[in-house]
Amino acid sequence: xxTISIINLKGGVGKTTTAVSLAEYLMLGDQKTxxxxxxxxxxxxxxxxxxxxxxxxxxxxxxxxxxRILKTGTIKGNIKQTGYFNMDLIPCNYFMELAxxxxxxxxxxxxxxxxxxxxxxxxxxxxxxxxxxxxxxxINVINAMVATDEIIIPVxxxxxxxxxxxxLTEQIxxxxxxxPKASLAGCLITDYEKTETAEAAETWIRHKSGCPVFxxxxxxxxxxxxxxxxxxPPGRYNSRSGIAQDYKAFVREYASMFGHRDEAARRGxxxxx
Length: 273
Prior knowledge:
The protein is α/β, with parallel strands linked by helices. 40% of the residues lie in helices and 16% in strands.
């Protein structure tokens, strides 16, 4: 199983939309490139629970599954089914704040490897785990980064996002002392509108930031906001919309560069731990 973290220290740059779209298109496969559908575990690590809401699995009244995993380091009993045969979900909610406080107070057990240990329990059951992270570096995000193989950074082409990118890349370098295998797959330009400022910012991020950048750009689209009201990923809400087509192209680009190649892992049977 390959674990991918979607992260940016700035909020509102399309992390959740990227996470759910990546998960959905990896799960569906691609007829154009003859890429088979993959088995995906979608991990909501953000206390706002937007990924959980999109899949109808958000509950504000009890501790969510991601919180329990952080506290116990085990995944058993903490995976929820979605409406898809090949995609499961780990929900999150605001109880994550309490879980983080409890972990910080635990001076006996390891604080940083709980997600890594938990995900190892189901490593043979999924091709990908996609983690949707909040815009911070709390103990839950550090756990995600320690468990991660690849990092994708959605980024807007504005000064605030670019400043945050520099800080985030520094933090990724620090995380690599705990997880040397973690690598930056690339930055994904989101909410793109063609202006002189955006073109200048794109030139900087591609040629001067020192970060790899995906060729695909996700265009600004009203459909993205509309999809959230209907609690759907953009591709499911309107598969012909520009944003849906852009995310499909992005996943095609990602799969061509980093995709899971183990045919034996794509068994027809789907097992739960």
